[in-house]
Amino acid sequence: MPEIHPVSHVIFDFDGLLVDTETCYTEALARMLKPFDRVFTMEKKAAMMGMKMQDAVEWLISHEGIGERVTTQEFMKDYIVHLDELLRHGPLKEGAERLVKHLDKHIVAVVKHNIPMAICTGSNTKEYEQKSASHRELWALIPLIVLTGDDPHVKNGKPAPDGYIETMKRFPSPPSSARDVLVLEDAPNGVKSGLAAGCQVVQVPTGPEACFRMGADIDAKITVLSTLADFDPTVFGLPAYD
Question: Is residue 15 annotated as part of the catalytic site, yes or no?
């Protein structure tokens, strides 16, 4: 079990944690393979994790043996069209709306429970605009958004700690210590980033991330939940749900 103490600030990842973008990526690739009589599986998705888009598409085309029927560029062009459509309607993850609104309520209403919130995501500005098109009223409750994909002040993406360190600096009232910050993540690289920044970390793994652990040394430092709906704010010294 990790060493847990009360937190003063909360930072959310976005993709796969608050919004179910993983379903969007899976559906877009499933649509692309259907005309070739192929099925997109979680095993294939796991093999593509962490690759740049072009590398992942090249791997998939080769793996499926469809290179004589479609080029990488043709596949990517149609894939992006499907993905754009799906991302604009990405559903919220279970428990996300309840937690964000709960923390926002206590920021506004209870001075002693002032809980600054932020999002730190690997998306760039264009990608975030697509993914956040739905539920804008919910994202408006989170005043600080750091888009490490094209933020000039963030040199290295996750698993480097740069994004979370920069996010902590940008809080109007920065935390006294990184240990006073709770990071909520889904992906292994995000977990490693939060830990490297010195924060406490809760992981809610989804998709292929749920199929494997990161090793006993990392698992011992984090709290792992099946869904955000299982998150108990009081464990980290935050006000209880009503």
Answer: yes
